[in-house]
Amino acid sequence: MKGEVKTRVYHKESGPSRPVCYCLAVTESDIREEILVKECCSSLEDVQEHTKAGTGRWCPVTNPSGKCCKEYMAELIDKLLGGGSPERLEKHRSKPGRV
User: Fold this and answer.
1) What is the pLDDT of residues 26-52, one digit of tens each?
2) Which of 66, 74, 79, 86 is buried most deeply by CB count within 10 Å?
3) 15-43: b or e for each residue (b if 16 or more CB lie within 10 Å)?
4) What's the CATH number of domain 2-93, 3.10.180.10, 1.10.10.2840, 1.10.10.1100, 3.90.950.20?
């Protein structure tokens, strides 16, 4: 039963509070905030720098899939960036301090 599971599973959950990086307790909401609210991230590397998601080393123990979150985090980031639309990426590149 779902109520008996102690760890929420990214692929089986929906909503902003679902876990993305199990090692460092980063949620979809945390990543959304960096990309959509703070507008400081436009790549996987940016998100990792700001949230540390995907940089932990305990995936086999903490992530129910036994895999690193980077595998599906890139998909989530692409979705949040509007599929990597050129307009959205250009907006980030043109911000002061961005390349």
Assistant:
1) 999 999 999 999 999 989 999 999 999
2) 74
3) eeebbbbbbbebbbebbebbbeeeebbbb
4) 1.10.10.1100
pLDDT digits (tens, 9 = 90+) for 47-99: 999 999 999 889 888 888 888 998 889 888 998 888 654 454 455 444 444 43
User: 53 with 31: CB under 8 angstroms?
Assistant: yes
User: Which pLDDT does position 82 carry in this prediction?
Assistant: 86
Measure the CA–CA gap between 92 and 58, rounded to whole angstroms: 32
- Tell me the CB-side half-sphere exposure of residue 88, using CA atoms within 13 A: 16
- 14 burial (CB, 10 Å; 0-12 / 13-18 / 19+) is exposed
